[in-house]
Amino acid sequence: MSDGHGPTPETPSGWSAEQPPPYSAPPASPWTAPGSHQQSPHGAPHGEQPPPQRPYGPGPQPPYPPHQHPQPVYGAMPPPPALRPGIIPLRPLQLGDLLDGTIKLIRSNPKAVLGLSAIAALLASVPLAVGQAFLLNSVGGALADPANVSTAQAELTGLYGFASQYGGTLISYAIQFVAVTLLTGVLTRILGRAVFGGKLTAGESWQLVKGRMPALFGVVGLMAAFMLVPALVFVMLVVVFSLNASAGDIGWLAVMSILFIIVYIAYYLFIRTRFAFASPAVVLEGRSPLDAMRRSWHLVTGDFWRVFGILLLTSLLVGLVAGILSVPFTIAGTLFGMFGAGSAATTAVSAVLIAVGGTLSAMFAYPFEAGVAGLLYADRRMRSEAFDLVLQTAAIEQQRQGWVHASADELWHPSNSARS
């Protein structure tokens, strides 16, 4: 019996008052058998097709709730991000990871990295700057007083000219050989700890790496021998050929010289790529010079062109940035030296400006090239030896302990590789 406020207990459609009707009638099966006593949901007799319905009517028919998007029913879950306790993710690295990791290495420890690089760059730049300043002073004196051109030419071709042109360069290269070798060892040790998020001061790094310096100098000496011996042999052959050649053979000598330069550039790039990881192997793995060079050759094998491309691109980027940093100071120093000839003050200012430009460019170039080479060494070990598994296990343990232990340096030993 109705109470006057709702439908009767039994409605014509058959739904009880306790069970309110759904939002729409249950959909009819599209497979209705002929002769059945079912009515289509649109009132059409059985056996007749209902009028076609537009799939998208004028009214709102959102297939999903607002501000939501359909999610795939099937699909793999994305892999978790790689563990990154320090400057790089502990997985095989891409080019962006290498460059970003090197920048993070410099930013995470600027006093040790940039401070040591500045000292090495300054020591290597000062002799070269002094020699160039005296050379510019002589050239500027000849330009200011054409009557002294012959005197200036005599100075430039004599002992003074040789010392100003080549003496500073030779001394600079000798200092650079020592300073950059020491710097590479110290920076490599700082990098090895920074991978785990740890920091080393310059003094701490030196204490850890000073025992490896003889082996590191051995590697650099062997590299220099590989580079210089072919050039010296060719120069000797050219001298002998020039002494015995006639005027018609000068053309052949020029062609052979050009061919040698092309071949030598290719040879230089090959040697540099093959032995790019010798220094990290000496510092981080404790190897001897020859063993470290064999180790580098083995790591590069199978991925030569990628290593070559990354090192070449790094050199181009470093050269571009270093040139931007040094060019203004070099131009200013050149102008002071040439147009202020005859004055000791302008010569000193010229030398200072050239030295500042060289120091700024080298202070950036040294750690960046060393950082990319060190991280590329770690990447090759991850790819060829599954070394990332060793690093991840150690990083998890160090995170559990809450600090980076000094024993992390021992993980770089090849005996800890997963595939050793």
Tell me the layout of helices and strands:
Layout: H1 95-108, H2 110-144, H3 149-157, H4 159-194, H5 202-209, H6 213-244, H7 250-274, H8 278-285, H9 289-300, H10 304-339, H11 344-385, H12 387-401
Helix pairs in contact: 1-11, 2-3, 2-4, 2-10, 2-11, 3-4, 4-5, 4-6, 4-8, 4-11, 6-7, 6-8, 6-9, 7-10, 8-9, 10-11
Molecular structure report:
This protein is mainly α and 420 residues long. It has one domain. It is 65% helix and 0% strand. It is built from 12 helices and no strands. It has helices at residues 95-108, 110-144, 149-157, 159-194, 202-209, 213-244, 250-274, 278-285, 289-300, 304-339, 344-385, 387-401. Helix 2 (110-144) packs across helix 10 (304-339) and helix 7 packs across helix 10 (304-339). The longest helix has 42 residues, at 344-385. The radius of gyration is 38 Å and the shape is globular. Mean pLDDT is 77; it is low at 1-48 and 54-58.
Keywords:
single chain, disordered N terminus, 420 residues, 0% strand, DUF7847 domain-containing protein, 65% helix, mainly alpha, DUF7847, transmembrane helix, membrane
